[in-house]
Design a protein that fits this description.
A hairpin with a 2-residue loop joins strand 17 and strand 18. This protein has 740 residues and is mostly beta strands. Helix content is 9%, strand content 30%.
């Protein structure tokens, strides 16, 4: 946190939402001409911007949708799921990762919670590290009379996944912690890939899913080993015995129930299907009973599976449709592996979130379609039959949400849970056109650059630079921001800029003084961010909008033009979307071409009225050093490099299951990396740690920075060439560490 004092709302998410919607003007409606009283300010006035403004956009596929914020007066802490009592739409229940179940009336104007349904952490100490926490909840089929509820959560160290039964003693208002009865427990090998969802099927049995035990590549070969409960979908009869019975047609019915510690000599009778890596959200089709599941992939594919009794879904023999590079020994004789009904690669997203078959009434074109999304990219698709018995995915929305779960209300309408703290409903767009890009095909027609000389910014754009730039394969960059007139920038609790809707951020990429690409990153009127890439022609006279990811050769160097989902893969909600535009990055001098003045950027932007609240003296504000400058200690410069190149994903709430925090403000011993064994494979390094103090060659982090073209590469997107200077900086830093 900076020294700047700001009012903090109930949560960061709520504060961000309010700030982003602020309409406080910094001058006249045409942009104003606020004089700069300080002669050291870089710009004399805020430029008027009437042309470079993010336009409206609509969903594609003939089904125009938008995420509508619901229950906006309520704020949640890392919500993972929302559900209703079957047949009772009067209340919603929202599960927070830390262990609390929030309850509130199903009223659009609701502004307060009921008494917590239960707070597990207050009584039982939830282990919510990495992918642990309160992960699932299911109401007993006879809840109205039994008042029994089942919770799936993690505790202990080492971590244990638990399914416990609780009873309400007050008519369903709350759960009694003292009524807890353990139904089933599973020891976890690591603290990721826990799965954890539970639900009752129409057959009355309780279904539960667990991942392969964690790390990367299923190192203990759990998913293909049916003598343990990991990597599988389970089905148990909660009324059939103590603590449960086994349905008679389960594949291994008749065997003794399996213990939590994976020491069973026989196949586990609880197993319904297996060969899963990290099942994250699944549902039954309310019309057909089909069980559809999203299984998070290793490094290449995300998949959707139709789960059938006795099915083996291939992990870790295969990842989606292709052979896995390091399969389990049992894969040599494995047969009958079931393919996913759909899989997508890393150009579309990084972590699938399973959804629902839509059975509502407000979006008629969607009825019968399976709707799912991606946690990392924010994209939402539906599956459409391809006429040959298979499916293709049709994109419905490209959002800026970190989609933790979908939800279905009693009427069959669909909702989205954003782990950042808000809830949304999928609604049809009331007005607006069909699909297609909302921006101009040619850069010269976007309103952001001079139509007569598209390499030059329009007059409403404000140039800026950052202290620690992202590695872009050695290309030089120029940056601008453009705000609609009368709007301002807020600063959130992480010191990130929160931009109003309509904002456009622009960036030129040059190699050897030749323009290669221009990117526009826009916050559209619906509140979502999206990126657009323009490729320059050989004559350098204009640039054309690129459709989808493309790789081209520029003077013998490979260059990637990203698609929208790859933009979202780096521009995460946890990192404030814009990247680079934060107090510490801009707290440095810049020479403004329009005036010839060199001045501090924050001082200048503050003086021309760009912030909603005065910043105060920039000396008291955070300052990130240049990683390759000489004005800061090497440790600070190394941390600045990681902050820019890694922390957009590796931070709390980021789109990665690896629980490390590489922000420059996080103390070394709190990063979850120093002296810690790697969770996604040791890459063949003996004695590997993520960061091994004094031993760069034993540090997986350094090894990943040097890789390209495989699943171990970091960053996984947007780069074809390792940053040798950055590697040297990190190597020197690790070598100089005496400890953690």
């Amino acid at each position: 946190m900076s020294g700047r004092k700001r009012l903090v709302a109930v949560s960061i998410v709520a504060a961000t939402w309010v700030a982003a919607c602020s309409s406080r003007s910094s001058g006249p409606d045409d942009g104003g001409t606020i004089p700069a009283p300080d002669p050291t300010v870089g710009l004399l006035a805020r430029p008027s911007n009437l042309t470079c403004i993010a336009p409206d956009r609509t969903g594609g596929g003939g089904t125009a949708l938008e995420p509508t914020r619901v229950f906006p007066a309520l704020a949640f802490v890392q919500p993972l799921a929302m559900l209703q009592v079957p047949g009772d739409d009067s209340r919603w229940f929202v599960l927070e990762k830390t262990g609390r179940v929030r309850v509130f009336a199903n009223d659009p104007a609701v502004n307060s919670f009921d008494t917590d349904f239960i707070d597990l952490d207050a009584v039982f100490n939830v282990n919510d590290n990495q992918e642990g926490g309160l992960l699932g909840m299911a109401f007993a089929p006879d809840f109205e009379t039994s008042r029994e509820v089942y919770l799936s959560w993690t505790d202990g160290s080492p971590m244990v996944s638990r399914i416990d039964r609780f009873t309400s003693l007050d008519g369903g208002a709350t759960l009694d912690p003292g009524s807890r009865t353990n139904v089933l427990s599973v020891n976890q090998d690591f603290e990721n890939h826990n799965g954890g969802q539970i639900a009752f099927g129409s057959d009355g049995y309780l279904y539960a899913s667990f991942g392969d035990g964690g790390s990367g590549g299923d190192p203990n070969n759990r998913a293909q080993d049916t003598t343990n409960l990991l990597g599988a979908m389970l089905r148990i009869d909660i009324d059939g015995g103590s603590p449960y019975g086994i349905p008679t047609n389960n594949p291994f019915a008749g065997n003794p129930v399996c213990p939590a510690n994976h020491s069973s000599p026989t196949n586990c009778p609880e197993i319904y299907a297996w060969g899963l890596r990290n099942p994250w959200r699944w549902s039954f089709d309310s019309a057909t009973g089909d069980l559809l599941l999203g299984d998070v992939g290793q490094g290449s594919f995300e998949e959707i599976d139709r789960i059938e009794l006795g099915g083996n879904y291939g992990w870790d023999c295969r990842e989606a449709f292709q052979a896995f590079s390091n399969p389990a020994p049992s894969c040599a004789t494995a047969s009958g592996l079931i393919d996913p009904v759909h899989a997508y690669g890393r150009s579309q997203g990084v972590s699938v979130t399973g959804g629902y078959v839509y059975r509502g009434t407000t979006i008629t074109a969607l009825v019968g379609s399976y709707v799912f999304g991606d946690f990392g990219s924010g994209r939402i698709w539906r599956l459409v039959g391809d006429g040959r018995g298979g499916f293709t995915a049709e994109e419905l929305l490209d959002t800026s949400l970190s989609i933790a779960s979908f939800a279905e209300d009693d009427a069959g309408e669909l909702y989205v849970v954003d782990i950042a703290g808000a809830l949304y409903r999928l609604d049809p767009v009331v007005s607006g056109g069909g699909g297609g890009s909302p921006v101009a095909t040619m850069l010269s027609a976007t309103g952001c650059f001079d139509p007569a000389a598209p390499s030059e910014p329009a007059s409403g754009l404000i140039p800026y630079t950052v202290a620690a730039p992202f590695w872009s394969d050695g290309l030089d960059k120029e940056r601008w921001l453009a705000l609609p007139n009368g709007t301002t920038i807020a600063v959130d609790a992480d010191d990130d800029f929160v931009f109003p809707t309509g904002t456009v951020l622009a960036k030129h990429f040059r190699l050897h003084d030749q323009l290669i690409e221009t990117r526009l990153y826009m916050r559209h009127p619906d509140g979502g961010w999206a990126g657009y890439s323009y490729a320059w022609n050989a004559a350098q006279s204009d640039a054309i909008l690129v459709s989808g990811a493309q790789v081209v050769d520029i003077g013998g160097q490979e260059w990637l033009f990203p698609d929208a989902s790859q933009c979202d893969g780096c521009h995460t909600s946890a990192a404030g979307f814009s990247l680079g535009l934060e107090l510490g990055q801009l707290n440095r001098d810049f020479t403004y071409q329009a005036t010839g003045r060199t001045a501090n950027q924050l001082h200048t932007l503050n003086a021309i009225g760009l912030f909603d609240l005065p910043l105060g003296d920039v000396v008291s504000l955070p300052q990130i050093p240049d990683p390759f400058g000489a004005d800061a200690p090497s440790a600070d410069r190394a941390r600045a490099y990681l902050h820019t190149n890694c922390a957009q994903c590796h931070r709390p709430g980021g789109p990665t299951s690896v629980g490390i925090d590489l922000r420059s403000t996080t103390p070394l011993d709190a990063m979850g990396a120093c002296g810690i064994s790697p969770q996604r494979g040791d890459l063949g390094i003996a004695g590997a740690m993520i960061i091994a103090p004094g031993s760069p060659d034993e540090s997986v982090l350094l090894e990943r920075l040097g890789r390209r073209g495989d699943a171990a590469a970091m960053p996984p997107l947007a780069s074809a060439l390792p940053d040798t200077e950055g590697q040297a900086l990190i190597r020197d830093w690790i070598e100089g560490l005496a400890g953690c």
